[in-house]
Amino acid sequence: DAGVIQSPRHEVTEMGQEVTLRCKPISGHDYLFWYRQTMMRGLELLIYFNNNVPIDDSGMPEDRFSAKMPNASFSTLKIQPSEPRDSAVYFCASSNWTGGFTDTQYFGPGTRLTVL
Amino acid sequence: RKEVEQDPGPFNVPEGATVAFNCTYSNSASQSFFWYRQDCRKEPKLLMSVYSSGNEDGRFTAQLNRASQYISLLIRDSKLSDSATYLCVVNLPSNSGYALNFGKGTSLLVTP
């Protein structure tokens, strides 16, 4: 089975440009998560969706960031306008919540974003 | 104070050595606990869940101490391929469902 798919894998852009990151979760998973990872702050949860509905976006750093999940197989994270401090690896993860305590999140390979 | 704290390391150990990592968490309401492994420039992957009674998976042993709010990971007979960053993860219940809180990771380098 295909895992979580993210695109692009690498993105280099100039400050002020719009950046769109894409994610396809594992089929059948009902939770989707967007994370950002930097050396300084580690892995931070930005937002997560359940059944395509945003549940908690308290981790979104500011209004320049937005995320959508128009259907069960696709999500986007958009940064507009981008700034150099947005440079990080952005991971998408999905899981299938069964109500237990051992649910695993499966991560995509990440998008390495560099804003010049 | 961060929810999950780990010693960043790096831990440099020779092949065959035993190494242990600890992790502390701040919220006593935490429900479940995990260790994830992240290789350089790769995504995190679940290594093992941590159960109250402690659990073992081959060379890896995880322990949970709820009273002291810490989690440990023991790696015996370490291999070169164990070199990676180990992330301590704590699941916190919330009104919106649940949220995994990740530590910043402990770096392990196993040398020949």
Describe the structure.
The complex is a heterodimer of chains A (116) and B (112). With 116 residues, chain A is mostly beta strands. Chain A has strands at residues 5-7, 10-13, 19-24, 31-38, 42-50, 53-56, 65-71, 74-79, 88-95, 106-107, 111-115. In chain A, strands 2, 4, 5, 6, 9, 10 and 11 form a seven-stranded mixed β-sheet that branches. Chain B is mostly beta strands and 112 residues long. In chain B, the strands form two sheets. In chain B, strands 2, 4, 5, 9, 10 and 11 form a six-stranded mixed β-sheet that branches. The chains are: A mainly beta (116), B mainly beta (112). The interface between A and B is medium-sized, with 19 and 21 residues.
Number of beta strands of chain A:
11
Radius of gyration of chain B (Å): 14 Å
Oligomer: heterodimer
Terminus-to-terminus distance of chain A: 36 Å
**Helical amount among residues of chain A, as a percent range?**
under 10%
Radius of gyration of chain A: 14 Å
Number of helices of chain A: 0
Mean pLDDT of chain A: 92
Low-pLDDT segments of chain A: none
Order of helices and strands of chain B: EEEEEEEEEEE
Shape call of chain A? globular
* Proportion of residues in helical segments of chain B: under 10%
Low-pLDDT residue intervals, each spanning 5 or more residues of chain B: none
- Note the gap between the termini of chain B: 37 Å
